[in-house]
Prior knowledge:
By secondary structure, the protein is α/β, with parallel strands linked by helices. It is 37% helix and 16% strand. It has 13 helices and 10 strands. The protein has helices at residues 56-59, 85-98, 111-122, 144-149, 154-160, 166-179, 188-196, 201-214, 250-258, 274-277, 279-292, 300-309, 319-324; strands at residues 18-23, 26-33, 38-42, 64-68, 104-109, 127-133, 215-216, 219-220, 236-241, 263-267.
Amino acid sequence: MPRRTPRLRPVADGELRLRHRVVHGYRRAYRLAGQGPPLVLIHGIGDSSATWAGLIPDLARTHTVIAPDLLGHGASDRPRADYSVAAYANGVRDLLATLDIESATLVGHSLGGGVAMQFAYQFPERTERLILVSAGGVGREVNPVLRAITLPGAHLLLSLLRLPGMRLQVELFGHLMRLLDTDLGQDAAELLNIVDALPDRTSRSAFVRTLRAVVDWRGQAVTMLDRCYLTEGMPTMLLWGDRDGVVPVRHAYGAHEAMPGSRLEIFEGAGHFPFHRDPARFLALVEEFTATTPPADWSPEHWRELLRAGGPTTQDHTPDLREASERSAT
């Protein structure tokens, strides 16, 4: 299928500013820019829509780009609330409804990838494509630092990071990780930004509640691996850095195997933020994928057929899938 030539439209600076909508009594921040097929960008834990800021102007030339700050993140409210992936999927649906957007292509990074998968599971009729970037919710493995933050006393540990001089210590640690050429060191700057995004108790509480909804001391506690077969007929692309120190790249291969017809792209030398390491390649892949794949043609009949047929059984599949059956996110 020949690639279309996009009709480019300049994006005004004002379009990139944060906007706000009150949904269910809570203020939700988001960025909205461009015209064309809707493209929703969902950030990871502790992050915000600002992580996409450098990419939005280019994406908005051919798409209507919506980049929310998830509840508990960025400029959105931080209530004592449900921070599960299912609740986040509901929140994305409700925000899109207020913006008169019926369906969209979802781009999810890290936790946002798990939210995107959950959105597609809960609302397949509203999901046109999935682009999952270093996504959570596939395997149990996750960086030990995140597992540690789920333990009792995490609030105290995070509050210590705000003591005078601690930011410099964290910055020096990140610099050392880069000098040692560790996988985690590839994302030192981004991880420092996440520390900076937790300035007060309310922010830290929302961060810990979100993390504990998906991770415990043993690793990731929820998964979509056992129901990835439901993405049959859903255009899906996986983007991963081969030096991801947060969610290992082997999860990409497991998800690719479990998602029928999915496409896998590996960013060599990139860590957990491949769209920061090589934004030009990321933009080209998103543009090409959305231009050359038709939106998912969902129907209740097809959904029922997939559910009745089921996916691979735990008896004749991999240990990862047997493990996944014990921690499904219904």
